[in-house]
């Protein structure tokens, strides 16, 4: 059964329409503490919920990431940057356009506006809301 699930995860991740997505794991907005993780061959026809499940599983077992990143309560993804478009000046994630840029779980990645070389932030929504209320950096 476990082997089947692993194959299913790989099937969801891999696609003939191969896209590279960078996921920025945001541990702390105040301390600007984040780590980028690059995923190749992402299937843009999977739902956001499926991709979140895949990334959570991958992050928890990924070598090279410190334990605070592996064990964090990530629950929300937001578009940071799309290829060939302007970048925000914010160092961690933009605090604007949440209604357009925060991904809805029932949408496919493609329908949510994800394309090849898109960069996403993956964070705890509660931490994001708290930081948005008082956007002060600790350093």
Description:
- Helix content is 31%, strand content 23%.
- It has 5 helices and 4 strands, in the order αββααβαβα.
- It has helices at 2-13, 48-61, 67-70, 98-101, 125-133, and strands spanning 19-28, 33-42, 76-81, 118-123.
- Strand 1 (19-28) and strand 2 form a beta hairpin.
Descriptors for this entry?
single chain; about 140 residues; alpha+beta; four-stranded mixed beta sheet; disordered N terminus
Summarize, please.
Helix content is 31%, strand content 23%. With 139 residues, the chain is of the alpha+beta class. The protein is built from five helices and four strands, in the order αββααβαβα.
User: Strand portion, in percent?
Assistant: 15-25%
Average pLDDT score: 83
Rg value: 15 Å
Structural class comes to alpha+beta
What best-fitting shape do the alpha-carbon axes yield?
A: globular
Order of helices and strands: HEEHHEHEH
Largest sheet, in brief, is: 4 strands, mixed
Low-confidence stretches: 1-5, 7-16
Q: How much helix is in the residues? A: 25-40%
Q: Strand order, biggest sheet? A: 2-1-4-3
Ends distance: 48 Å
Number of helices: 5
List how many beta strands DSSP finds.
4
């Amino acid at each position: 059964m476990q082997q089947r699930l692993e194959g299913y995860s790989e099937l969801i991740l891999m696609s003939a329409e191969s896209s590279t997505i960078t996921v920025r794991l945001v541990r702390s907005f105040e301390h600007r503490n984040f780590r980028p993780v690059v995923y190749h061959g992402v299937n843009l026809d999977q739902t956001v919920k499926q991709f979140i499940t895949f990334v959570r599983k991958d992050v928890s077992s990924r070598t090279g990431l410190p334990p605070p990143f592996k064990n964090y309560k990530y629950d929300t993804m937001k578009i940071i940057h799309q290829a060939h478009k302007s970048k925000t000046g914010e160092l961690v994630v933009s605090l604007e356009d949440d209604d357009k840029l925060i991904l809805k779980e029932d949408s496919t990645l493609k329908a949510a506006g994800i394309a090849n070389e898109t960069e996403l932030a993956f964070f705890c929504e509660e931490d994001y809301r708290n930081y948005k209320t008082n956007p002060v950096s600790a350093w």
